[in-house]
Amino acid sequence: MAANFRTLEITVISAENLQLDRKPIKTNASVTVRTDTNSQFRTTDRDTEGGAYPRWNEKLVLDLPTHSKSITVEVQCKTAYGVRTFGTAMVPASDFVGAYVPEGYPHFLSYRLRDYKGERNGVINISVRMKVPEMYACASSTTSSQSRKGFPAAGNHSFGGGVAIGVPVWYGAYQKNY
């Protein structure tokens, strides 16, 4: 049975050069991360000290449907008139799914924030890690507490077995996997 979602650990690290009405913000910035289907979202606590350069270093866990193409990161600030979104970034799922980094490893990403007019309004720094399902973990032996990720290599087990790893090598105008 295939899972209908992937679990993401998104660490909202910090932001830079945040402005509200072309003036640096003073306090109370928070971040909301949501899926492209808007079915799920998580929000950080407010940073009360960082001003235009807030730091959260807060981990948010979010279930991303397998058909999702992106997540949205919104930076908000509490003002006298309520909570106001002043920067948004769309993060394509292709930036943290697949590629050359194995699942389970963190991707450190920075994105330009845009305000509601589409103008630049700071930068958000995040880390995204896709949690690997437990069914992919295999123990090296029944008595060992050490586990490895991946699938056991086929063939001669006289060399201790192990995990098969394909490393992409760029060779001329085409790519080969060895």
TrEMBL record:
InterPro entries in UniProt: C2_dom (IPR000008), C2_domain_sf (IPR035892), C2_SRC2/BAP (IPR044750)
UniProt GO BP: defense response
Domain C2: 1-109
Superkingdom as given in the UniProt entry: Eukaryota
Xref: CDD domains: C2_SRC2_like (cd04051)
UniProt xrefs under PANTHER family: BON1-ASSOCIATED PROTEIN 2 (PTHR32246:SF17), INGRESSION PROTEIN FIC1 (PTHR32246)
Name of the featured protein: BON1-associated protein 2-like
Organism the protein comes from: Pyrus ussuriensis x Pyrus communis
Classification of source organism: Eukaryota, Viridiplantae, Streptophyta, Embryophyta, Tracheophyta
